[in-house]
Each structure stands twice: as structure tokens, then as C-alpha cells.
Design brief:
Length: 350
């Protein structure tokens, strides 16, 4: 079996498993930021993906399963209790996914989440967040249950062949895979072998909430887009002007652009690029025609850091303002670069 692991800066790990004879493959816990890298791996190894498998509903990073499924026409597999409506194949305990000559067994291991599973293939076990190297998944997030995790670990996972190599969905220190036997012996969380002690240990943990908890659960449970996806898709549909080019144009008698500041009023009044007119992002659809009576105008959108203005520029283009572009950066960078800033009300709208 071919195994390739990809580890993010935050320690999240996903795996490409391939059948060396048939070149069939699946991805375990695909991450959104690695989508292009999976495609490169597939091309370099001559692989064709048959399944995308998420071990559970992730709360700390964004699954790439849905985007990959749309690009590759490959089914998404998860446990039947997964809340996501876009899952194509809802698997249960004891079932298998066939990937060429590989048989990938499904072990339901609730506790970190109700839909947590492990995948077993050719001497390896991919444990998601059920079992980590030197730890276990937390149980204080939605659908977590320390009692269920105890049973999943001691009653199920640790009863498997001790020679299985453990590959978790998080590896913060880049540790090499170890066997189940080694985890039984050295993993501090597993030394609490009595149910009551283990449950108390899990309940007494004091852990920070994941940075993107709400956004990750929203997108992974519903298939909705992340904020970064929305910005990236908008950026692909607009062009940008550098601050240096804007400064050069403002130094001339005819800049050839209308500058539109889409921040809220208090931010605009406190300081804006000279000559910019004000139209908050939330009012663009309703007031753009009045603010920009010439639909052919070259209009440069600005905001504080350059993200909202990018989305707003794409919105204006959708409305027919084909000359809408965005500043590469924002008023904050403009100010920090030493360029002039005006305060108070701006010019009257045409």
C-alpha cells in the first residue's frame, strides 16, 4: 500500500492511500488547503481517487472533501451519523471501502464526536481524532462524550492487533507513527484504564477552543463556503491596483478612476484615501446605481485590509459594473506606507 501524508502548519494531517497494483486511491481527512497538492500527488503517482473519507466532522479545520468531490466526481464517505447533507456514502461499523485490492475497514469510535470513525488498511489504522500519538481527541466539543470515548478506546480500538501502525488526524510535533502496542504503553491518556478515572481525566482538561470553531462546524456540517473561499473566488474575478500605482495616479490631474470606500461610516470619517466617496459594503446592491450613475466607470474599491473590498468589487461586476477593481491592500497599509489620508466627509457623489 502506498501512503502519503500531508501535514499543515497547525498539525492537521491527511493521508493519501493507494493500491500499488491498480493505482486506485482514497484520501483520509482531506483538508481544503491541500486540494491542489492532492491532485499533484495523484498525477505524480498515477493514482485515481475512488473515495474521499472524513473520519469525523472536524471542528478545527476545513474539510476539502466537497470541493474535491466536485472536481473529481468522487463520492464522499462518512459515518451515517455525520450531519453533513452532502455525504454520498454513509458507512457503518464493520463495513469496508474497496480501493483496488485494498480493503479499508470502518470502525465506529464515537467520543470525540458522535460520528468519529477509524479506518483500518493493510497493517495501518487511521484514527482521526479518536487516538493521537501521546494523547486522545478532546470530548468537550459538540457531540463529544468522554464515556463513549472510553468505550471506543478500551473496548474497541485497543482490542485490535497491537502491531497496527497509528496514523492520527493531528500530529502537532511531527512524530513518527507508532504501533497500538506502543501507544498502550506510553500514551499518558491511556494509563487511566478505569472508566471513572479516564472520564474524570477528560472532563478536567482545560483546552482552548479551536480558532475557527464556528466557521469550521458551519462549513463542514453544511457544505457552505469558508470566508477564505469566498474571498478567493471573488479575487479570481477582479483585477487589482497596487498602492504605488494609485499614489502615482493621485499625483496627476486626472487619476482616471473613482475611488469607492466600502467601510462603515466611522472608519471612513476617521481617515480615507483622498477623493474617495463612501458607500458601505452592506448598501452596495441598493445604492450602487445612485453612487455610480455611469456603469462604465473605472471604480477602485477600498476597505481596511483589502478583503471586503475584493468581495465588493466582484459584487459590482456581477451587477454590470465591469470596471470595478480592488486595491491590493487596504487603507491600513496605505496609511502605514506614509501615503496621505483625508478625514471627515469626502467629495459629494456625482
Amino acid at each position: 500500500m502506498l501512503i502519503e501524508s500531508l501535514r499543515s502548519e497547525r498539525g492537521c494531517v491527511s493521508y493519501v492511500l493507494g493500491c500499488e497494483k491498480t493505482r486506485a486511491a482514497l484520501i483520509v481527512d482531506p483538508e481544503l488547503s491541500f486540494v491542489d497538492r492532492y491532485l499533484v500527488l495523484a498525477a505524480s503517482h498515477g493514482l485515481r481517487f475512488h473515495y474521499l473519507f472524513d473520519t469525523h466532522t472536524h471542528a478545527d479545520h476545513f474539510s476539502g472533501a466537497r470541493l474535491l468531490a466536485s472536481r473529481l466526481d468522487v463520492p464522499i464517505a462518512m459515518h451515517r451519523l455525520a450531519p453533513a447533507p452532502f455525504v454520498d456514502l454513509r458507512v457503518e461499523d464493520g463495513e469496508e471501502l474497496i480501493v483496488g485490492e485494498l480493503r479499508v475497514g470502518i470502525l465506529h469510535t464515537p467520543g470525540h464526536t458522535q460520528d468519529s470513525t477509524c479506518a483500518i488498511a493493510a497493517g495501518h489504522v487511521f484514527t482521526g481524532d479518536t487516538l493521537l500519538l501521546g494523547g486522545t481527541g478532546r470530548t468537550d466539543l459538540p457531540t463529544g462524550d468522554p464515556e463513549a470515548l472510553y468505550e471506543s478506546l478500551f473496548g474497541r480500538l485497543l482490542q485490535l492487533d497491537e502491531r497496527l501502525l497509528v496514523h492520527p488526524a493531528h500530529n502537532y510535533k511531527g512524530l513518527p507513527a507508532t504501533t497500538l502496542a506502543e501507544q498502550k504503553h506510553s500514551n499518558p491518556r491511556l494509563q487511566q484504564k478505569e472508566r471513572a478515572g479516564f472520564v474524570e481525566q477528560m472532563r478536567s482538561l482545560s483546552l482552548d477552543m479551536p480558532e475557527h470553531l464556528t466557521e469550521a462546524l458551519r462549513t463542514n456540517c453544511t457544505g457552505g463556503k469558508t470566508v477564505e473561499q469566498i474571498i478567493s473566488e471573488a479575487a479570481a474575478r477582479v483585477s487589482f491596483m497596487s498602492m504605488q500605482e494609485l499614489a502615482r495616479r493621485l499625483a496627476t490631474s486626472d487619476p482616471g478612476i473613482t475611488i469607492l470606500d466600502v467601510r462603515e461610516a466611522d472608519a471612513y470619517l476617521a481617515g480615507h484615501i483622498p477623493g474617495a466617496i463612501h458607500l458601505p459594503r452592506g448598501q452596495i446592491e441598493l445604492r450602487a446605481d445612485a453612487a455610480l450613475p455611469d456603469p462604465m466607470v473605472r471604480v477602485l474599491l477600498t476597505c481596511e485590509v483589502g478583503k471586503i473590498s475584493t468581495i465588493a468589487a466582484a459584487t459590482l461586476r456581477d451587477m454590470g459594473f465591469r470596471g470595478a477593481i480592488a486595491l491590493d491592500g487596504g487603507v491600513k497599509s496605505w496609511r502605514e506606507a506614509g501615503h496621505p489620508v483625508a478625514s471627515g466627509p469626502g467629495p459629494a457623489r456625482r
